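Data availability (excerpt). The following record was deposited with the supplementary files.
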Amino acid sequence: AAALRELRAQYEALAARNLQAAEDWYRARCARLHERAARSQEAVRASRREAGECRRQLQARLVEMESLRGAHQSLERQLQELEERHNAEAAGLQDTIGQLEDDLRNTKNEMARHLREYQDLLNVKMALDIEIAAYRKLLEGEETLFNMGSSGLPSLNSLPSPTYSFQPRSFSSST
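Predicted structure:
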């Protein structure tokens, strides 16, 4: 019985040591796990903070992208309006150019017609000048004959000198 008590005491001491060792091992293991869990929790918090920051940055980028998209659409509309206005102005200017070219062509034709009329009138004037010069020579020749012939006839000198009037002919232009 004493040997059994001694064996029992040894087993109980061994069990107590084993129990103490298991508890120490369990506490050390728990402490390491708690430490690891604390580090993991800190890593999770850091990851969550980083994820939150990334979400905020993503939201900011999305808002910025929407803003830029709106600005882009606005600029596209402005560009289209400017192109339409430019095309309308260009079409108006082309119409004006065409109208001015027509006016220029009409003015040139009118100037050519006036030039022809002027040439015709100049030709008529030259013909009339030649005719007037011829009549003058004839009249001067008759006056000299008249003066020579009247020197013997004093009574004819008392007559007033003849006055000549020119009746212009009307010429019509062919154009």
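Summary of structural features: The mean pLDDT is 86.
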